[in-house]
Design a protein that fits this description.
Elements: E1 13-28, E2 33-49, E3 53-57, H1 64-72, E4 79-85, E5 91-93, H2 99-106, E6 109-112, H3 126-137, H4 143-156, H5 173-185, E7 191-195, H6 203-220, E8 223-228, H7 231-237, E9 240-245, E10 248-254, H8 255-260, H9 265-272, E11 324-327, E12 330-332, H10 340-344
Parallel strand pairs: 3-8, 3-9, 6-7, 7-8
Antiparallel strand pairs: 1-2, 1-4, 4-5, 9-10, 10-12, 11-12
Amino acid sequence: MTEVQRSAEPSQPILELEDLKVWFPVHGGVFSRHIADVKAVDGISLKVIEGETLGVVGESGCGKSTLGKAVMGLVPVTSGNVHFHSHDGRTVDLTRLTRKEYRPFRSEIQMVYQDPYSSLNSRLSVEEIVDEPLRVHHPKMSREERRIAVEEMLERVGLRKEQAERYPHEFSGGQRQRIGIARALATRPRVIIADEPVSALDVSIQAQVINLMRELQRELGLTVIFIAHDISVVEHVSDRVAVMYLGNLVELGQTQEIFRQPKHPYTRALLSAVPRPDPDRRREDRLVLRGDVPSPMAKPSGCGFRTRCPIAQESCAEQIPPMIQVGKRQRAACPHVEQFDELLG
C-alpha cells in the first residue's frame, strides 16, 4: 500500500452539504398523530475539502452524530442534499439513492463508531470482522487475497497478524477501536467519519488512537470528519472546525482562527469552559451561559441560541441568522459579532 502525499493547499470539495435537514417525527395521543418533530439537523450547509480533517464540535444532543449518520445514509434525510464527488469523476446526491444504489459508494465512505465494545460482532473473529467489507465490496478478490489484505491492515493499525484468529472480547478497548479502524479502512475509502472515536477510551489510550488516525490519514490521503464533544481533541486533530448548536451550524473556520479568535457567542462560551493552565487568567474572563439547552422539539424562533445568548437582541427572534464572513477564512451565524464587547458592556 503506497503512501499518498496530501496537497499543501487542498481546495477541491469531496462532500457538499446543502441545507441538510434531519427531523424525526414524534407521535402521540390516542390515534398516534404527528404532534412534533425533533429537529436534530436543521439546515446545515458546508463543504468538506478533500484531504482535510473537519472537526465537528458541540454539546451533547446538538446533532453532530446525526449529521455523520445522514452522510452515511444511516438515517433518513428530511430535505437537503449531500453531494459526493466520487473517484470516477461523478457527482452524486447521496440523499436521493436507495440502499441498493448507495452500496457502490459505501466502500468510499466508511465510519469509525464511538463504542468499540458494541460496534464489533462478538461472534466473529477479528479476521472475519475486517474481511466482511472486502467480501461485500470486492467480491472478485480471492480468499487468499483477502487474508493477505486483512493481515496487512491489522499490522497498519498496530496489531499482529497472529491476533486475527482471536475474538473481540479478548482485546482491550483501545485494541478494539484499532480493529474498528482496520475494518473501516479495509475497502480503501476516501472519506472516514469518526463519530466520537476516543470518548469511550481511557485518557492514556486516547492519544494513541488519535495519533494512529492522523498517521493513517497522512499515509492514505484520507478525508476525515471528526465528530467530538472534547474541544481539546478537536483542536489537536482538525484543519477546520464546524461548531454546532441545536441542529444548526453557528461557526466555521480554520482551527487556529476559531481557537484564537472565536466570534460567535456560543463558541466563545464553549472555549471559555475549557480548563487552561494559565495562572494569569482571571475568573471573570470566562463567559458562562445561563439556562438549559432548549428542546429540539421546541426550538426558539429565529436564532436557536438567543435564549442563552448574552448579547441577544429583539431582532434575533425574527429569523434564523445566515452565516456571514467574520474573518479571512471564518464565518459565523450572528449579525452582532463585531459589537460583542460593546453589547456585553
